[in-house]
Write the structure tokens for this entry.
Amino acid sequence: MSVAPPRLKRCRRRPLGILLAGLAALLALTFLAGGGHEELLSRALPLLLPPPAGNAPPAPAPPSAFQLSPPPCAAPAPWLLVLVASAPGHAARRAAVRRSWGAARLGGGRGLRVLFALGLPAEAGLQAALEREAAEHGDLLQGRFADTYGNLTLKTLALLGWAAARCPAARFLLKADDDVYLNLPGLARELDRLGGPPDAAAYLGRVHWHVAPTRDPRSRHYVPARLYPEAAFPPYCSGTAYALSAPAAGAVLAAARHLPLVPLEDAFVGLCARRAGIAPRHLARLAGSARFPPDACCYREVLFSAHRVTAAEMLAVAAAPEPSCTAWQRLLGLVRCKLLSWLSSEPDDP
């Protein structure tokens, strides 16, 4: 008889333990889906930045800087100008972008324009093909420099310079790679929520922390110590996809005139942002360099960007029927997409 009360107490405690465990799991999922510690760090970063250095106003790139230049933005200016870093030989990728996420509409009266930035091809015959493509689509921006990995910083400065000169009224600039699938309606809503007033300098993306420069001359990421002697780069947004408000883009251009041209374009933009006193803001739903399988729910509703997407995958995701997410998939959201990425990854994935 004396053992009955403790058993009763244990039975009463069990539902409470299950409830507490469920709440802990829910909090952990919420923390992961909201960006985790990276989001918290990026919110605190403005308090740690030095005051901005004095910079002269940016000098917009003159028309003579470009071999091919699309028409300037007409009124009303696009709310979001998407500048896709491409390469001369990537015609299939550009065609897939135009037919998939590049054909999106933002809604709410917000305009959108997508352009492709590239350099000069090594093959002489490819230039004629680019000129025909530019005449057909009017969306190629070609700088007068060789299109090489080492010139990615020049390509970024070219596209920012063109935007400052030919599309100055765009509210946001979004730089992306041509193997990235973008959920532009979802990203636009997030930029509208986080970007602040029109005169605010916003720099948003997947933030990399304490990245050390590669000192191996055999690597394409090589940064010699004479060019950048510090042990680590300041926090910067992954170059796969990041957004700059118009004031932030102008500040980056102005700061670029005072810094060595580090060949890693995303790290260079981070250096310019630090000089200008602009802290990057972490967006967990921008996937960075992570590889996600072509799941329509992840690509079109949960994530804002997905990297290493082939032209065929872009078209397949865009053609998937609506709706692509079930209620359960929406509830799991980012955690589900991260799990799919982990399950599909290979040991040699970079």
